[in-house]
Design goal:
Layout: H1 3-14, H2 18-25, H3 29-43, E1 48-51, E2 54-57, H4 59-78, H5 81-84, E3 89-95, H6 97-102, H7 105-114, E4 118-124, H8 127-135, E5 141-144, E6 153-167, E7 175-176, E8 184-188, H9 193-202, E9 211-215, H10 218-227, E10 231-236, H11 241-245, E11 250-254, E12 259-268, H12 275-289
Parallel strand pairs: 3-4, 3-5, 7-11, 8-9, 8-10
Antiparallel strand pairs: 1-2, 5-12, 6-10, 6-11, 6-12
Helix pairs in contact: 1-3, 1-4, 2-3
Organism: Arcobacter acticola
Family: Belongs to the LysR transcriptional regulatory family.
Protein name: Transcriptional regulator, LysR family
Length: 290
Amino acid sequence: MTLKELNFFYKLSDNPQVTQVAQELKISQSAISLAIKSLENKLEEQLFDRVGKKLILNERGRYFKEKTLPHYLAIIDSQKLFQKNKLAGNMKIASSKTISNYLMPDIYYEFLSKYSDVKFDISTINSTKIIENILNSNLDIGLIEIDINNSNLIKQKLCDDELIIVTSDENAPKIAFIDTINKKWILRETGSGTREVFINSLGKYAQDISIFMELQDFEEIKTILIDNKDTITAISKNAVKKELESKKLFQIKLKNFEVKREFHIVYHKDKSTNLLFQTFIDFLKSKFKN
């Protein structure tokens, strides 16, 4: 069934005079007759009684109108939906854990408060899985903490970040070589952007890291560190800001090493960049810039 066929049907259900309906719609009578016949053939039911030059709605036609008219009107109304509000829609967004837990909550809240017809489907997964989901078109936008070069992805920088070494041992040296730190390393799981950037930055010195435990959540790692002074981790400075200020954790600066990285927005190169999509991208950039 087409919207045109349905439109003719509803017009004739209110006015059986085919000539008058044709004049109103500025088309030929034969065009209306052919459309109604096509509709009836698709339904395998006769909707009108042919009485002279009139098409009179019969019992099957009245039933069809009763069941379908509300849906037809909703479809017609939906054609104007985005003309009324171009900043409406449901977006699927995933962020890596550092970004999701420590940077995004207030940004999500502020954007949704500003645009009430927008909904977010938000998930928190590691950067590797975000990239997989973007490539499989399961996400609209990803926020990652690793550098990636893929011809099917568009990548835009959000901001800089720094990874630091922390422990709860207040007597630990403030500056040290990586191979002189005699503590148990607690790191994120394989696939984590934080772990990947840290290990890659160490180069050949990565062999001096003996990983005691791997966890998926920063809060779990921080809890272990605070309760056990013989442990240590590499973590985003953003993730331990409160703990450094309260002196629950202490930074150890690495000699000859400074671990910097960038946070990025990524999306598929074939993603349609409508007004809602671009507005959110611009909003993100402005917030991270500030």
